[in-house]
Amino acid sequence: MKANFLAFVFIAFCAATLSAQKASFFYEPDPTTSKQFWREYQQYANSNAKIPLYFTTETGANCTFDGFGFRGQPQFLCTCNNLDAAKTIATNKLWTGGSLGLNLSGIGLNKLAVWDGGSARTSHIELVGRVVVVDAPSALSGHTTAVVGNMIASGLNPNIRGMSHQSQLRNWNFTNDNAEIIGAAPDLFLSNHSYASITAWTYIGSNLYWYGDSTLNRLKDWKFGYYDNRSRIWDSVMVQNPYYLMVKAGGNDRGSGVAPGTLHYYWKDTAWALSTATRDTVGPYDCISTFGNAKNILTIGAVQVIPNGYAGPSSVNMLSYSSWGPTDDGRIKPDLVGASGVIMSVGSANDSAYAGLGGTSMSSPNVCGSLLLLQQYHHQLKGTYMRNATLKGLAIHTADRCKVNPGPDYECGWGLPNIANAALCLKDSIKNSIFEASLNNNDSFIKEVYVTSGDSLRVTICWTDPKGITVAPAYNDTTPKLINDLDIRLTNMAGNTLAFPFVLNPASPSLAAITGDNKRDNVEQIYTTALPIGRYKIKVKHKGQLQNQVAQSFSLLISGAPIYSLALPVKWLSISALQTNWNEAQISWSTTSELNNKAFVIEYSVDGNTFLVAGKIAITNPNKLGLNQYQFAHKLNSGLPETIYYRIKQEDIDGNFSYSKTISLQNSNPWYIGGVYPNPFNTNFWLNITTQPNSQNSFEVYNITGKLLFSETKITSGPQTISIDLSAYQPGVYFLKILESGSNNSYIQKVIKN
Length: 754
Fold this sequence. Notes:
Layout lengths: L1 H12 L4 H7 L6 H15 L8 E3 L5 E7 L5 E5 L1 E2 H7 L23 E5 L14 E3 L8 H11 L16 E5 L3 H8 L5 E4 L7 E4 L2 E4 L18 H12 L4 E5 L14 E5 L2 E5 L22 E7 L31 E5 L1 E5 L7 E5 L1 H23 L5 H10 L21 H9 L4 E8 L5 E7 L4 E7 L23 E6 L5 E3 L2 E2 L10 E2 L7 E6 L5 E9 L9 E10 L8 E12 L2 E11 L2 E9 L6 E7 L5 E12 L7 E10 L4 E3 L3 E4 L5 E6 L6 E19 L5 E18 L6 E9 L5 E8 L1
Helix pairs in contact: 5-8, 8-10
């Protein structure tokens, strides 16, 4: 076991490539610190202590000695795993067996990609058949393999299951990444980028290098906070490909530094030269480098895993190396944080190896792989996929706080994603609404909401902004990078502004967010809990002129508690469905107030996408206050399918309409006829039948006078296709009757023979 664990240690703290190392791992470049650790390590190894240098806990975590702590107590680092990372941001609740019952896995989607410092081990048992290395040959990389495993490992080892564990993935080496990204973007939803520019202090071999430029600033590296050409390209790619979202590791430079007077190389004129000049330790703020500062991407910081799930701000512990914002022009970075530490994932040593990896290299794929499940779920609910701004906005809109104060900060951005909350936001159309719209030049966009007692209101706007202007290398250039400055405001019906979005002050980056006019970010959010009962307006507008006076697409997300009625005067309270017979369901719903209500239309669907009308209830009294309850019995001749979906369409006297949330009903008595085809037929027809195991069914055919012509009994189990041969009979009209023995299940269908 010790030999295997040593392999884990080397993978966790060594890197295949220098660029991947800078983005992936926190390490202390001061040789004095390293020597002190190994002295303590040897001392502990020779002490015959009760706890060994390496051990495995009862939960399967691998642990290793990590020096002496207070009063000489030995300290240990222990691994977490992909499952713990999933629990941290509630991704596991979307999986099969998860509390939401959604059974999402990314299956059938080949819209996920990774650019990294090499290729994943595609023959690994957790990945085989689902990873394509596009720019082969490419060197096998333990870093890439672990990143890919965190995203899509199948879960043969349950603790190593990836976020989208049945998805396919394409893998590129990050050499020439820009050209490859431009070419691949039209066919992708998401890509992960766990790499960054070399910055500040870097060991290459035994030599220490400082990667700043002393002509720009002799103490600090100018690349931190800088919006570079790659940032500009990535922003442009996402504008051109509105369904593609790039997710990037924020980097691990915070706290990196060396003792004053340490000998190191720096770039002098045209060559490397030795120096003992004192340079600043990196951070704590303004330490996200170059293309981590792109506007439209999701930049991800790192927090310690929370194996039991989020339990309030106190449960979130930012990892000491995770880089903080702001950008040089004051924008919020990172956007979000994900789970890291030392995460056990897929290893590259052999086809069944597992290995640990840390840093923001693992927090980024933790988020990226999880977001694919939201795209899958949105398609199940709506039949469409979300724009990149919608997906990014949804992740921010539903994130959990890292701190007690509401709003964003420059340390963990908008917080810790809550993938379960995001899925519920998509599902619950009573409490949540999402609009994908466009704002024309010199125009505005307005939505009305109705607030009841106790309601809170959260409004988020996100847009994919045109590429910013890249200036020549400079230290702390504050030139704004925002091109189209959209704004959200909450007003009363008279148009008076009641609430502004959150803003941060880059001059005092540690201060909590306040509210005001956000002139920097392409994400804005309003949150309020103290509105009186009544109607309000959410207004989207813009400053100045939109670039080239072309309309700017944006996504608007609105959530309230307990219920919001958007633009229509009906307050939904509940909707439910109960199976009352093999072919019948009772749909119940209630409202708490109705104004100008004309009718309720009950709709059903067998696939969750295409809805048919089941019936309609006309309203004689259009204005009602207080609790109103309704019921409707829905009966299908063919029986209820295994899963059936219901929603209520409310029609207004003025011709407007809105929908309740969509609910699903699981058939507890599965006996279902899926249809007869072809009809009319020539010699024989087919039918699909679904039954319980060992169900005895009779299939009978009668002529138009009621005479029995054909009878056959079959034992069926689950879904089955049956053929009925009527080639011996004359053309005409016949009736098919199906009866299940021992129940009242029956089905009658007219069939026509040509």
